[in-house]
Amino acid sequence: MAFTFNPYAPAAKYKTAAAYFSMEFAIDQPLKTYSGGLGFLAGSHMRSAFELKQNLVGISVLWSFGYYDQGRNPDQTMRADFRRKYYSFLEDTGLVFPITIHGADVHVKVLYLAPEVFGTVPMFFLTTDIEENDYISRTISHHLYDPDAAARVAQSILLGVGGGRLLDLLGRKTDVYHLNEGHGLPLAFYLYEKHGRDLAEVQKRLVFTTHTPELAGNEERPMKLLTDMTFFGTMPEEDVRRVARIENDALNYTLTALRFARKANAVSKVHGTVANEMWSHYEGTCPIIPITNSQNGLYWRDQQLAAALKSKDDTALLARKRELKKELFKIVADQTGNLFDPDVLTIVWARRFAGYKRADLILRHFERFVALAANASRPIQVIWAGKPYPLDQSAIDLFNKIITSTAHLKNCAVLTGYELGLSAALKKGSDIWLNTPRFPREASGTSGMTAAMNASVNLSIADGWIPEFIRDGENGFVITHSDESLPENVKDDQEATALLDVLENKVLPLYYEQPKNFLKVVKTAMKDVEPAFESGRMAREYYELLYKV
After folding, report:
1. What is the pTM of this model?
2. Which range has the worst mean pLDDT, 95-104, 243-252, 312-321, 447-456?
3. Is residue 1 one of the residues assigned to a domain?
4. 448 and 478 inside one domain
5. Structural domain of residue 65, as residue ranges?
6. The domain spanning residue 291 has which CATH number?
7. How many domains would you assign to the chain?
8. In b/e form, how buried is each residue of 490-510, taking b as 16+ CB within 10 angstroms?
9. What is the pLDDT of residue 1?
10. Which of 43, 266, 321, 379 has its C-alpha lying 20 to 30 A from 129's C-alpha?
11. In sequence order, what are the residues at sequence separation of 6 or more whose Cβ sits closer than 8 angstroms to the Cβ of residue 427?
12. What would the pLDDT profile of 200-217 be if each residue is shown by its tens digit?
């Protein structure tokens, strides 16, 4: 039977037909098609768009081996394992079609995730890992963020051109194409060809979300590689250079997307300022507005904690929080052999492992940290978790350094396997959610939102979404960041001192000596984080501020 696409009737206010292209989606624990925050954000968006009955579809790639499975070597250091994934809950649409990569046909198979499976908008996953393709073509959809440059370009063509062609084959009239980051940029050139090489027609339909002020996160490739790989379809290189305003021998995905889009958004107010400073001086770029990232409450919040907050039952809230800490500590014991105490203040640093996020900032003044950790009257427990990019050796070295430097401390643990399930356990089982990026390099940082939903208090550098949320001492704690003009090592020293000062002089006294006041901070954060940082607000703003002409 032929595949019929007719999922649900959209709500009247969301009839504009939109398609959301993302290289990764964190939808649910069984579906391993994500690496970190970009995927977590996209997954929450798909859930909230479904709850609002928006006329939106999600388009991505089905990664045969996922990102990677994080395991341990015999000495407890990190190991990246790659295992093929199979998903019985994805429906074979029967759709197989060719796209052109490196001048040759590559066949794309389409699988469908129905809304009722995980509570998302309809989603389509593209794969080249099928018998119709040769081995090299099959590997295009093997690994999320393949380290090989040509493979990465091919993956972008698969997402952008494959997704564009899919929508046409489905016969779905699409009013708005939404690129989540620049990975799917070939879509812009596909639309350019489709609409008679009229840039204005593309700009009517294309919108773009930029996520990172990190240069490494704004992909750039040599024009020769892109041309050789058929990144621009049938467009001659001279036309590409003219329309995309290429002035050298490389194409920047973000800058090009900003020139082909009608409007773009940054992912927090701070990031909006940074993104405009980075890009708006270039000729031909579209406006960049802030739409702050957020997370889906229905998926992330613990129902019993939320019910206790609503009923103003402090006893029930504290009892449930203690249960959740004990559940997390079972994972700690299983992985590390350390037995943690649910009555001890528990600090968690957990997110994608990257150098600028500074997982080890709390350890920078190590002797002071050890003295603080050894204080019997005000004890602490600290947990780290996160996935480095598998070829980012400096990030892997940092992960392993934290393991070895804290191995002798019974109140410290480094966990492996940072996916949706562990992420949820860490947020629900922590008292303090630690966030220590170098300002202003954290565009948004949504993990603290879901922590706050689950009675975990943010202790953070005022970067990303934090300035929009935290009122210091009322619903969280701010670590003062240093003058941006200082050398990084000086800033790291100063901010490590500021972190330990806040912990020692504010957080610990409140937790142990004024527990009712600490609970007040917890409850205020739980109340403040929703609806402002719940993804229903974000999904509505996309329609109202980004999709609306």
Report:
1. 0.97
2. 243-252
3. no
4. yes
5. 14-295+537-547
6. 3.40.50.2000
7. 2
8. ebbbebbbbbbebbbeebbeb
9. 47
10. 43
11. 300, 348, 433, 447, 450, 451, 453, 454, 456
12. 999 999 999 999 887 767
